[in-house]
Amino acid sequence: MSLPNGWEMVIGLEVHTELKTKTKLFCGCANAFGSAPNTQVCPICLGLPGSLPVMNERAVELAMAIGFALNCTIQDSTFHRKNYFYPDMPKDYQISQYDVPINAHGYLTLPDGFRVSIERAHMEEDTGKTTHLGTSGRIHGADRSLVDYNRSGVPLVEIVSGPDIRTSQQARDYVAELRAILIAIGASDGRMEEGSLRVDANVSVRKADAPFGTRCEIKNLNSLRSLQRAIEYEALRQIEVLEDGGKIRQETRHWDEDRGETSTLRVKEEAEDYRYFREPDLVDLAPDQAWRDRVKAGLPRLPAERRGLIESLLGELSDAQRDAVATIVDQGLDEYVLGVADAKGDVSLALARTANEIAANVAGRTNLSVANFVATVAMEQLGQLSATQAKTVLGELLESGGDPAAIAKAKGFEQLSSDTLSVTVGELIEANPDEWQRFKDGDDKLAQFFIGLVMKATKGQANGKAVIAELQSRR
Amino acid sequence: MKTAQQIANDVRAGESALVAVEASLAAIKARNEELNVFLYVDEDGARTAAEAVDAKVRRGEDPGLLAGVPIALKDNMCTTGIPTTCSSKILEGWKPPYNATVVDMLAAQGAISMGKTNLDEFAMGSSTENSAFGPTRNPLDPTRVPGGSSGGSAAAVAAEMTPLSLGSDTGGSIRQPAALCGLVGVKPTYGLVSRYGLIAFASSLDQIGPFASTVTDAALLLEAISGHDPMDSTSLPEPAPSLVAHVNDGVAGKRIALVRELVEGADDAVVASVNRAVEVLKDAGATIVELSIPELHLGLSAYYLIAPAEASSNLARYDGVRFGNRIDGDDVTAMMEATRTAGFGAEVKRRIMLGTYALSAGYFDAYYGQALKVRTRMIEAFAAAYQQADMIIGATTPSVAFTFGSKTNDPMAMYLNDVFTIPTNLAGEAALSVPFGTGEADLPIGVQLLGPGRSEARLFAAARVLEIADGR
Amino acid sequence: MTEPLSREDVSHVAKLARLRLTEEELVRYTEQLGKILVHAQDLNSLDLAGVAPTAHPFGLVNVVRQDEVHPSIDPAAVLAEAPDAEDGRFAVPRIVGEAP
Lengths: 475, 472, 100
Ligand SMILES: [Mg+2]
Ligand SMILES: [Zn+2]
Fold this sequence. Notes:
The structure holds three protein chains of three kinds. Chain B has helices spanning 4-12, 17-35, 43-59, 101-108, 151-158, 175-181, 215-225, 268-283, 299-314, 332-343, 346-359, 365-388, 411-415, 422-427, 456-469, and strands at 38-41, 70-74, 112-117, 164-168, 184-187, 208-212, 255-259, 287-291, 391-395, 430-438, 444-451. Chain B is α/β, with parallel strands linked by helices. Chain B has a domain at 4-246: Amidase signature (AS) enzymes (Alpha-Beta Complex), CATH 3.90.1300. Chain B has an eleven-stranded mixed beta sheet with strand order 1-3-2-4-6-5-10-11-9-7-8, sandwiched between helices. In chain B, α2 (17-35) packs antiparallel against α3 and α9 packs across α11 (346-359). Chain C has a domain at 7-44: Orthogonal Bundle (Histone, subunit A). Chain C has helices at residues 7-16, 23-39, 75-80, and strands spanning 64-65, 85-86, 89-93. Chains B and C meet through α9, α10, α11, α12 and α13 of B and α1, α2 and β3 of C. β2 (55-56) of chain A pairs parallel with β1 of chain C, so a sheet runs across the interface.
């Protein structure tokens, strides 16, 4: 989307990701989604008097891994208390990193090469979850609220970008790429709908090269689509206000997905007074070189590098293939394509099958070994299976595992014998003399016409390449 | 009353732990109504625990360092099954679902918890007059305060209800009541004793420590509750030090500094006691140096910004949502305000507001930030002093126990009571108070011995020299 | 010396701390807190330029625990201590305004 009259968006994103640890940040309660309310709580994450926090080592390591993946400086860091009263926060303060975060000054490169600066990626604890009783289910109009502290104390890393993003598409690409990185390094499960990845967007508009305008912060963006729509709506809203001679108030706004609009949540009249001070119950983090090196050595290949590797195997790419590569890397399905490449098979065919069949049933990958995938692709490539049959075999493998050759046999996917095929082709030539003549005269397009007829007559059991060979032999 | 050491020895030799427990219960019954020492007496729990100790002895198992020794716990340490109130209406009736680490450690060493003692609400005070459940009286003179905030725990030992008790010391809350009640009281090195389950007043200053009537008993109790606790990130990473074994090491060859700022402004009788203690230590072979540490003058101001700042945050959780008492309101903010307004006493409110102010935008650098820098200077000044001396001697309090109401109208006058004890908390170091001599109305005077972090054994040895000289 | 803090300051601080003060308390606390803050001016008598603040008495670092699950506490016991509970959760009166 382009903005009218030379306006430009200025976007900075704050992404909160829950870390994929077994336990919470400061206590041994399970960090798991979807349990019965208040079953994953203890004196620490309930903020009971006398309880004290102790740092989860794995959370620190995942935070450092995020720092490495985002090209940050990983530094000695401290924890602060951010003081404010709210019923979902058991201690009525949040333990968070303030002036000295564990990760600072990094960047993330988008697939098109655009670089977004990362100001910081700091550790903090999540709050509990509030349910508002009443007709709307939202905070307004509710007369009572219920609090579940299962999520309270779950480790978070808040990743704050610089105000470098200029379009809603870039914002979307940024979150998609960040999400892929977080999943790749095992830091996050990346589920935006469940709230394990949450995005707030700071949006302002300006005329090109003018100073930054007043920004509004949009909350409740729980899908990439919402993110993009909300930013576009908000930018246009601000432009309208400004073009009417109005002023933008700095405020927090709520994105309403159903109505497709943002609305005021809270006006920032005066700066909040959080009375930050050093958390006296925790000591500083000062990871030594050996610890840093260990975390760095444990990092897997990042999505950009993995995409580059697969793309290099394909040579010239179509846009569709580029999307397919992004899809399989996002979903961590690289091994299938790489397996086929190693076996000197058809990489582009492998990409198509992975991005379509496997991506459609990612959960089924535990049933599908790379070897069986390579074998299935080889059978298709050799003409032993038609495309349709190959897809069916893969579907079956993903669903319940097994041996591809055996499945093909059980499904009756053995190729038509060449005799049967020859007879069928002969009959069809006789029934369509004009088309046959044109083919004989050199119109190769008619091959597809005959293949279609053969497939229909054999209910898809014929192999296209074999049909062409038969037609050629009679030409 | 037998000492803790005697009781533990007798129990190990086969005497029933119930003997000491019944004696303790009888002593509590005799004077608790008059003195208001215990907020909760756990009769059943104590007898059950005593029987368990006896059973251990019968089975030939080690019943622990404190086998069968009755002990009183300041009511700011979490205990399952019985209430923990911090002497505050806001927590009245609250039963924690967990034990403080020290409570479990005591049980593991065979000690018998007799119940929970009164304190200044949330440990904020120096007289135990700030309790929501009425003041505790000094057993030595019931018209006077026992000191605070651990006044109940001090009174329990002074009234011979229990031979041992635990208090917590944030700015002198063990040493000052120990001095006023004629007991040994110790503020251990920060991190030596776990804070897990100690209801926080000021997290970077709080430390649990012992009260006892003898130096050896105090050492015994501290040894039993020291050591690393993985539940407390600020817990020192080493095992408990050996203390009892060094109580009689003496002070020969030790350099002891008499620090001018730690006697300045004290009553004549107090100054005289300190001077006499110096002579005794000198006679026992110590070298005495006189020092001035001017930074100590700033301790009071730094403390009365740092402690309230941390307290304002630590006490935010008393909001009526998850535990404790609630006063209803139209919305959640009104409920929280009503709950806190009704639930906290005047001194707690005063410190919460002071701390909130010190941390708030615009004042942080001038007050809290400045106080943290003074804290650094204080630590450096102590370190310099410990280049010249192995320990420091001074007064614990400016005067003997004062009468009820004499300082309650002027917070600043009350705060001045802690002027000699506060610096140790700011530095995170060790100090104890040992009774030495008497003053007005024959009331006890405490002499304070201070040392660097982890110097407890040294301080106990010097205290023992004074104890012997004082005829005990 | 001028008053270090005003009645408005105390009133604001009380609001931040979720405390309500009567008129009489407001006057009293303003005076008492003022006295303490006046006393605290002595902190400025030292030259503290370049002095690092101390937040912890000792410089321990990297105190961490293993990422191992420990049993949580019985929700019934937790909720039994709650002033108000419903449906396995802690109940509060209506909330005005979203979290910051
Ligand atoms: Mg945050
Ligand atoms: Zn927990």
